[in-house]
Amino acid sequence: MIITRSTSLLFVFALLLGGCAKKNGPETTLNRNSEGSSESGLSGFNQGDEFADTGSPLVGNLEDPDLLQQRDGALEGFSDPLNTIRPFDPIHFGFDQYNLTAEERPKLREISTFMKENPKARLLIEGYCDWKGTPEYNKSLGDRRAATVRNYLIELGSDSERIETVSIGDETAIPNADSTQARLDRRASFVVTKGS
To answer: In terms of CATH architecture, what is 89-194?
Structure first.
């Protein structure tokens, strides 16, 4: 019994010592000079002809006032390759609601003004829901939310031909979200595109 116990202790002690031994990392030649000795710095990285010329020349003349002219801030986001921007805050709704609250209406007045001032802009209204309810019900609720916002914008004088709606429903909702997170999912969001 004593031999077994001391053999076991010896084995455990050997494992502990072996586990604490310093491990050598993989051998590398990164950051080494030609003799192979370590050297701090990157002296070997900037040698050779394999590097391309830097940049291309500036197109245009800096003396040209049009090049430096201020851009219309409202349309600045249209540099996006997809020709879309999301410049407006979303409209939030109560749980299982699609009516507009008094707090949200000023946001829609701002959007209506933008649409009147930018006749080439088109608006897509996306209706979102939280994760509660069936996907079919939430798709329908998202439709009603987007339609309510569209109708209010038309009442404010926006051109109905330039406003479209789509229901996202609960497709992007946070599953099992707490009430604060779920509130953010109950919304109508806006995508502005530059029409022709």
So the answer is: 2-Layer Sandwich (3.30)
What percentage of residues in the chain have a pLDDT greater than 70?
57
Q: Are 163 and 125 in contact (CB under 8 A)?
A: yes
Give me the amino acid identity at 4. T
Per-residue pLDDT at 2 exceeds 70: no
Residues in the chain: 196
Yes or no: say if 126 and 191 are a contact pair by the CB < 8 Å rule. yes
Would you state the structure tokens that stand for residue 194, as one six-digit string? 């530059």
> What is the b/e burial string over 61-88, where b = at least 16 CB atoms within 10 angstroms of the residue's CB?
eeeeeeeeeeeeeeeeebeeeeeebebb
What are the b/e assignments for 174-190, b being 16+ CB within 10 Å?
eeeeeeeebeebbbbbb
pLDDT tops 70 at residue 52: no
What are the beta bridge partners of residue 167? 127
- Range name among 38-42, 79-83, 123-127 with the lowest pLDDT average: 38-42
State both tokens at 50: 């394999």
Instruction: Note the pTM of the prediction, 2 decimals.
Output: 0.58
Residue 160 DSSP symbol? G
In terms of phi and psi (left: phi > 0; alpha: psi -120 to 50; beta: otherwise), the region of 47 is beta
For the chain, give the mean pLDDT. 74
DSSP 141-153: HHHHHHHHHHHHH
Q: Determine the angle formed by the axes of helices 135-155 and 105-117, rounding to 10 degrees.
A: 60
